[in-house]
TrEMBL record, chain A:
GO biological process entries: amino acid transport
Keywords on record: Amino-acid transport, ATP-binding, Cell membrane, Membrane, Nucleotide-binding, Translocase, Transport
Family: Belongs to the ABC transporter superfamily.
Pfam families to which the protein is assigned, alphabetical: ABC_tran, NIL
Record-linked SMART domains: AAA (SM00382), NIL (SM00930)
Full protein name: Methionine ABC transporter ATP-binding protein
Annotated ABC transporter domain residues: 2-241
GO molecular function: ATP binding; ATP hydrolysis activity
Organism this protein belongs to: Guptibacillus hwajinpoensis
InterPro entries: AAA+_ATPase (IPR003593), ABC_transporter-like_ATP-bd (IPR003439), ABC_transporter-like_CS (IPR017871), ACT-like_dom_sf (IPR045865), MetN_ABC (IPR041701), MetN_ABC_transporter-like (IPR050086), NIL_domain (IPR018449), P-loop_NTPase (IPR027417)
Cellular component per GO, a single term: plasma membrane
Keyword ATP-binding annotated: yes
From TrEMBL, chain B:
Any Pfam family the entry gives: BPD_transp_1
The name this protein goes by in its record: Methionine ABC transporter permease
Segments traversing the membrane: 20-42, 54-77, 83-107, 147-169, 189-209
Domain of life from the UniProt record: Bacteria
Chief location: membrane
Keyword terms, alphabetized: Cell membrane, Membrane, Transmembrane, Transmembrane helix, Transport
Coiled-coil boundaries: none
GO cellular component, one term: plasma membrane
Compartments (UniProt record): Cell membrane
Family, as annotated: Belongs to the binding-protein-dependent transport system permease family. CysTW subfamily.
NCBIfam families per UniProt: PRK10782.1
Length: 343, 219
């Protein structure tokens, strides 16, 4: 659907050459929600703008639906842009136009006849849940409502692709949630391919099928969201998702640890209870859960538990071997009080 | 008081002359200055019709006109006025140089109020696939409307001031009256009356401008 090939973007500032995007190749499949993650300045915003040529790459090619955008004339490019919607962190609605007029503009721009515009706008505002606000001005709306208007505007010409530039970064958590579920709905019901850029892993976790992690203009890791979350490879990726997989046990709790401190990671199915109770029955050990958390990554569960397993050393080791067989990943964080005493 | 009543016909005529001069110049400022101002804005770097050459050429011409003091521009443009109208006397003739001065003045105001628009709003419009003309008509103009009206107010008030200067070289109007009676004949009554008249006129224009500008502002 979207193919970026060996794309580089250089720009000059104060006689110094900077590279915003460094030889990136990327394919986004039809119907998927693709995330691009990175800190600000990583080049993700520039990368997103290649897809509708708001930014032109210095070298490389951009293909959307098999068409090389860089070969298009201005007029053809405008036509293509009508099939690529875009929403922004700052909403960017026209302050002097009502909600209705803001959405109608996109239709006017595409040359839709006046008589068809009204029905279409009403229908679009229904999709985003704002049918009763069409006479209001943007200044009278909340942030979430503004983003809904801009989503309606971006969907006006029945696009195949929707680009989201930090679309939820200016919104509070509840509103973010509702905008994300709207985007999910748009992806599923209308079959629109969505590309989001964000620095919030929550967004990726919630809606993205696949994602790419960017640093200094390069893609450092790319994979399905679940793989990225359950087995991150690059240090940056690890940092991004550390609050999902990592957990600091407070000092006080650490001092109370009697046996071995073990981290269990469950993927996809959550037979936690069964595994732990089976282990307790099979071996003479005690298990004390210090931390437990289940994240749903694109609706697939990923569980992390930290347990203090105590008892005879031999039994504890056997119990841990047993866990290795039943659990996706077992990590011994602390070998027990003796180990700490030695250190 | 008698003196005033005696003067009334002349005062009326001068007032109408001033309005004619300012009105004509203001119309040209709007009709030509507005497109020029928009042109200056859209041809800027990174904008919808980026064009360094056009931007610089228009900018230079505008700066040239704006750097000539008005009283000198008046004299300098006399041949042009005479060519266009066959005369250099009267409010119509004065309108020529007033217009020439007002057009670049207003164009710069239009340009600077267009700069106030959030670049993101323009980017979003470009992303919808709108043509430059659609963006100018449906985004730039509505978004700058309050600024355009404030600009017209500022231009009108400057023109009222300039029209007094134009009056001195035969343009007529209130300024001319004030100088003829007040300066050459030491007639304080006429002088004060014209000053009061000008003050009232300027206040009225400013008030109207602010009122309309506020009424169209949706921010």
């Amino acid at each position: 659907m979207i193919e970026l090939r060996e794309i580089t973007k250089e720009y000059w500032s104060k006689k110094e050459k900077n590279i915003a995007v460094d030889n990136v190749s990327l394919t986004v499949n039809e119907g998927e929600v693709f995330g691009i993650v990175g800190y600000s300045g990583a080049g993700k915003s520039t990368l997103l703008r290649f897809i509708n040529l708001l930014e032109r790459p210095t070298t490389g090619s951009v293909r959307v639906d098999g068409i090389d955008l860089l070969t298009l004339s201005n007029k053809e490019l405008r036509k293509t842009r009508q099939s690529i919607g875009m929403i922004f962190q700052g909403f960017y609605l026209v302050a002097s136009k009502t909600v209705f007029e803001n959405v109608a503009f996109a239709l006017l721009a595409a040359g839709v006849q006046k008589k068809h515009i009204r029905d279409k706008v009403v229908q679009l505002l229904e999709v985003v849940g704002l049918s009763d606000q069409l006479a209001k001005y943007p200044s009278q709306l909340s942030g979430g409502q503004k983003q809904r208007v801009s989503i309606a505007r971006s969907l006006a010409n029945d696009p195949k692709i929707l680009l989201c530039d930090e679309a939820t970064s200016a919104l509070d958590p509840n509103t973010t949630e509702s905008i994300l579920s709207l985007l999910k709905e748009i992806n599923q019901k209308l079959g629109i391919t969505i590309v989001v850029i964000t620095h919030e892993m929550e967004v990726v976790k919630e809606i993205c099928h696949r994602c790419a992690v960017m640093r200094e203009g390069k893609v450092v890791e790319l994979g399905t969201t679940f793989d990225i979350f359950s087995a991150p490879k690059d240090p940056l990726t690890k940092k991004f998702i550390q609050n999902v997989l990592e957990f600091e046990i407070p000092e006080l709790m650490m001092n109370r640890v009697k046996g071995k401190l073990v981290k269990l990671i469950f993927l996809r199915d959550l037979a936690t209870d069964a595994v732990v109770s089976d282990m307790i029955q099979a071996f003479e050990v005690r298990a004390n859960i210090l931390h437990g958390k289940v994240e749903y990554i694109h609706e697939t569960p990923l569980g992390v538990f930290i347990m203090d397993i105590s008892g005879e050393e031999d039994q504890v080791n056997q119990a841990i071997d047993y866990l290795h067989k039943r659990v996706h990943k077992v990590e011994v964080i602390e070998d027990g009080p003796t180990y700490r005493a030695l250190a | 008081m008698d003196r005033l009543i005696e003067l009334l016909p002349e005062l009326n005529l001068a007032f109408v002359e001033t309005l004619v001069m300012v009105g004509i110049a203001l119309s040209f400022a709007f009709l030509i200055g507005l497109p020029l101002g928009i042109l200056l804005f859209v041809t800027d770097q990174g904008l919808i019709l980026e064009n360094k050459w056009v931007k610089q050429a228009v900018g230079i011409v505008i700066n040239l006109i704006r750097s000539v003091p008005f009283i000198i521009l008046l004299v300098f443009l006399l041949p042009l006025t005479s060519f266009l109208l066959g005369t250099t006397i009267g409010p119509l003739a004065a309108s020529v140089s007033l217009s020439v001065a007002a057009i670049p003045f207003y164009a710069r105001i239009v340009e600077s109020s267009a700069r106030e628009i959030n670049k993101g709003v323009i980017e979003a419009a470009v992303a919808t696939g709108a043509s430059p003309w659609m963006i100018i008509r449906h985004i730039l103009l509505p978004e700058t409307k309050p600024g355009l009206i404030t600009g017209i107010t500022i231009t009108a008030i400057s023109l009222i001031g300039y029209s007094a200067m134009a009056g001195t070289i035969g343009g007529g109007g209130i300024g001319d009256l004030a100088i003829r009676y007040g300066y050459y004949r030491y007639d304080d009554t006429v002088m004060f009356t014209t000053v009061i008249l000008l003050v009232v006129l300027v206040q009225f224009v400013q008030y109207m401008g602010d009122f309309v500008s506020k009424a169209v502002d949706k921010k």
